[in-house]
Design goal:
Radius of gyration: 21 Å
Structural class: alpha+beta
CATH class of the largest domain: Mainly Beta
Shape: elongated
CATH superfamily of the largest domain: Pleckstrin-homology domain (PH domain)/Phosphotyrosine-binding domain (PTB)
Largest sheet: 7 strands, antiparallel
Strand content: 25-35%
CATH topology of the largest domain: PH-domain like
CATH architecture of the largest domain: Roll
Strand order of the largest sheet: 4-3-2-1-7-6-5
Number of domains: 2
Length: 283
């Protein structure tokens, strides 16, 4: 069982029920490496606030409650430059600071052991190396080594997705810079293959329509068995119409993608080559 820390009672809480864990996995789309209570404070804030915290990939997700299915804040720590520790306070809590490219994030654990553990896992996934900390226990180092191998495999898969993206042709009547990140100039069959071979990259692709003038959405869902669906998106002047039982008209292709994500409450995820960089600011 993964352990963590924060400004909470000494009793180690149990992880969220399986149903909630599955929901978090679906929403974040990232593997869980470590979890537990942490208090967090952005630069400029006076008070620390306790959260149930998850380290997924190179992201920290903060939940208001241990059983909340959706996070209230998230921070991308992939650009971590350093992690510094501060001596325990009068309550025994240990504060450490993550220096990021866009500011600093202050975290607080209930004691030294949990503080070292959190910092160790964070350094492992951001630096792709288990930190040489002699105070870490052999069991902790073993778990960090396991997480390191998982993160390396995840990075390789992301690079594979990126290679698939770069091999795609330019989109019709536009450029990649103005298209949603999940657009690929591929055929229906190629889109199906991409979704089947790289499920961790997402399950929704925007592609050219069969007439090369309009567009289509291809999605793949894992229900009782994998299911594929295709939706036509018609270009009408400056708008786009999704061919559903009741037609939906939207002002941009990005809005079309957002519509599918919103209507499925995040079950459908855009097929992209890397995790989102538009995170909550650290200022």
């Amino acid at each position: 069982m993964l352990r963590g820390s924060g400004d909470q009672p000494e009793a180690i809480p149990q992880p969220a029920p399986r149903r909630i864990s599955q929901e978090r996995q679906r929403i974040t789309g990232l593997p869980l490496y470590f979890q537990g209570y942490l208090a967090m404070r952005h630069s400029g804030c006076q008070e620390f606030r306790p959260y149930w915290t998850e380290l997924r990939g190179t992201m920290l997700f903060f939940y208001d409650d241990m059983k909340a299915p959706t996070y209230s804040q998230k921070v991308d720590i992939s650009a971590l430059t350093s992690a510094t520790s501060i001596s325990p306070d009068e309550n025994g809590s240990v504060q450490f600071i993550l220096m990021l490219s866009n500011g600093k994030l202050e975290l607080k654990a209930t004691d030294c052991e949990h503080g070292r553990e959190w910092k160790g896992f964070i350094l492992t996934v951001t630096k792709l190396s288990v930190p040489p900390d002699e105070s870490l226990l052999p069991e902790q180092l073993t778990r960090m080594q396991e997480v390191l191998e998982k993160e390396k495999k995840r990075r390789i898969m992301l690079n594979d997705c990126s290679s698939t993206s770069l091999s795609s042709k330019s989109p019709p009547s536009s450029t990649l810079a103005t298209m949603p990140a999940c657009f690929y100039a591929v055929s229906r069959q190629k889109a199906i293959e991409m979704l089947e071979k790289n499920p961790s990259c997402g399950n929704l692709i925007l592609r050219p329509g069969s007439d090369s003038k309009n567009y289509a959405i291809t999605v793949r869902q894992e229900l009782d068995s994998p299911r594929l669906k295709h939706y036509r998106v018609m270009s009408k002047g400056t708008s786009y119409v999704i061919e559903l039982e009741r037609r939906v008209t939207l002002p941009s292709l990005q809005d079309v993608v957002n519509y599918f994500v919103t209507q499925t409450r995040g079950i459908l995820k855009p097929f992209v080559t890397q995790t989102s960089t538009a995170e909550d600011p650290v200022s």
